[in-house]
Design brief:
By secondary structure, the protein is of the alpha/beta class. Helices cover 35% and strands 20% of the residues. Strands 9-10-12-11-15-19-16-17 form an 8-stranded mixed β-sheet, with helices on both faces. The protein has a 6-stranded mixed β-sheet with strand order 1-8-5-2-4-3, with helices on both faces. Strands 13-14-18 form a 3-stranded mixed β-sheet. Helix 3 packs across helix 4, helix 9 packs across helix 16 and helix 12 packs across helix 16. The chain is elongated. The structure holds ligand BES, manganese (II) ion and zinc ion.
Length: 497
């Protein structure tokens, strides 16, 4: 399906283009679907038997030029058992449905109906979200198209439903979420020669058109604040480091905000402790945490969330250079604590140490959640299925876990503790920036915790979930935009009251 799609909601009468319908196990169809497919007689049953299609969740059956209908193609998507479907499954079904529409098709109609009848507005919105995310592709830098991959200039997908006006209303929230995820994916996919800290800050500043207040701190401002750890990471780069503070005040005046903080290493070469060449190109995505925070702020502002939120991102480039920091250097953070640099490739925690402290001190948030592609160790531990969650507050951990199960962006709680904390004590300074090979994701989290005090806080290590994403029904891109849906759900269902 083409990237530039128009989505619409319509009635079940007169479908146009490729027709996608849903069926339950044992080929049960809804009433509007049965009516629309009456002219094809037993074609569906015979095709299903020939293809051993039974309607299992996520499976599909393709019938080209179905006789009896004037439509070019009929796609039947299985939903398994309707009673077992959660919100995240319906999002997935939207992805499966959109994925079955060929790129070259100028129009498609998706019948938003299960065997029991038409979908509710919220379910329709989930279907739309999945379809939008599935059809995302990043081809800004492709100047040629493969034959057969040409897109029609105006392609449209219509969701047939019983109450298009109600669907349109429910779609407003999910469309804002989709735009937030797409923005995060775009930022992550951009190469580092285009998206350096200054350019990233400009793109974040564009959120002001949605009513987000944006402040950009430059190096001079950060020097005045004493952000010695963040500045040390960026000092070997030709690009100036930035911190961007975004504020959305949709909640009651004067109530404390919630805060989201993102690691924005626009490129991580490792610095003088340089990384091996293989795979280094992926380190253009070492700003995925920051991208997620920007995408989240966009989603919350676009749907006018009734909540006060601060988004803060630390933007740097980690490069080897005559001016770069060295192993053995000791830096002083804004909090006053000192850090001995053992390995310049453990830079994300240095950036976050200063931004966490700054946000905590200035905004006194109800809670802080930071996102970071922080360690390779978390990929070893959890693969790409769960993000690592480190949390000093059981209630917050529980809410994050729940929001993760609901959205499918799942988190797995990891331990924190005094024994791990000891591993980053230093001979020369208050702490060192690495704790050795064992428990590498945990010792990184321990360093962050030294900068949050008593504020309820969670650190999400998204190195496995954000980049090089496995191909799923709702994402075919290298970047997933992981975290936008999770945190939007956390704010909406668990805090916005
Ligand atoms: N950005 C990397 C972590 C990373 C690795 C993210 C792979 C995504 C994919 C981080 O800055 C890093 O280099 N971490 C080191 C820490 C080590 C030097 C203590 C690591 O994980 O090896
Ligand atoms: Mn690194
Ligand atoms: Zn990094």
């Amino acid at each position: 399906m083409p990237a530039a799609l128009k989505f619409g909601f319509t009635s079940f009468a007169r479908p146009r283009g490729v027709l996608v319908v849903f069926c339950e196990e044992n080929l049960q169809l809804g009433p509007a679907t049965q009516k629309a497919l009456a002219p094809i007689g037993d074609l569906l049953r015979r095709a299903a038997a020939a293809d051993r299609f039974t309607g299992k969740m996520g499976s599909s059956l393709d019938i080209v030029a179905p006789s009896g209908l004037t439509l070019p193609r009929l796609v039947v998507v299985g939903i398994g058992k309707e009673s077992e479907l959660k919100s995240r499954d319906i999002v997935r079904l939207g992805g499966v449905a959109a994925g079955k529409v060929p790129t070259s098709a100028p129009s498609a109609t998706i019948f938003a109906e299960f065997a029991s009848g038409a979908l509710k507005p919220a379910q329709l919105a989930d279907l739309g979200l999945g379809a939008r995310l599935r059809t995302y592709s990043f081809d800004l830098y492709k100047t040629k198209r493969k034959e057969g991959d040409e897109r029609p200039s105006k392609a449209e997908v219509n969701f047939a439903c019983s109450n298009p006006a109600a669907a349109e209303k429910a779609w407003a929230r999910n469309s804002a979420i989709a735009d937030g995820v797409v923005l995060a994916r775009d930022l992550i996919n951009e190469p580092a020669n285009v998206l350096y800290p200054g350019e990233f800050a400009r793109r974040a500043s564009a959120l002001s058109t949605l009513g987000v207040g944006v402040e950009v701190l430059d190096v001079a401002a950060m020097k005045r604040l004493g952000m010695g750890a963040l500045l040390a990471v960026g000092q070997g780069s030709a690009h100036e480091s930035k911190v961007v503070i975004m504020r959305w005040n949709g909640g009651k005046r004067g109530t404390d905000p919630v805060a989201f903080i993102g690691k924005g290493v626009c490129f991580d070469s490792g610095g003088l402790s340089i990384k091996p060449a293989a795979g280094m190109e992926d380190m253009k995505g070492d700003m995925a945490g920051a991208a997620c925070v920007v995408g989240l702020m966009r989603a919350l502002a676009a749907r006018k969330a009734k909540v006060n939120v601060v988004g803060a991102i630390g933007l740097v480039e980690n490069m080897p250079d005559g001016k770069a920091q060295r192993p053995g250097d000791i830096v002083t953070t804004m909090s006053g604590q000192t850090i001995e640099i053992i390995n310049t490739d453990a830079e994300g925690r240095l950036v976050l140490a200063d931004v966490l402290h700054y946000v905590n001190k200035r905004f006194k948030p109800k809670f802080m959640i930071n996102l970071a592609t922080l360690t390779g160790a978390i990929i070893v531990a959890l693969g790409q299925e769960y993000a690592g969650m480190f949390c000093n507050d059981d209630k917050l951990a529980e809410r994050l876990t729940k929001a993760g199960e609901e959205t499918g962006e799942r988190v797995w709680r990891m331990p924190l503790g005094a024994e791990y904390d000891k591993m980053i004590d230093s001979k020369f300074a208050d702490m060192k920036n690495t704790g050795g090979r064992w428990g590498g994701a945990i010792t990184a989290a321990q360093l962050l915790q030294r900068f949050v005090n008593k504020t309820p806080w969670a650190h999400l290590d998204i190195a496995g979930t954000a980049l090089g994403s496995p191909q799923t029904d709702i994402n075919k891109s290298w970047s997933s935009g992981w975290g936008v849906r999770l945190l939007e759900r956390l704010v909406e269902d668990h805090y916005e009251r």
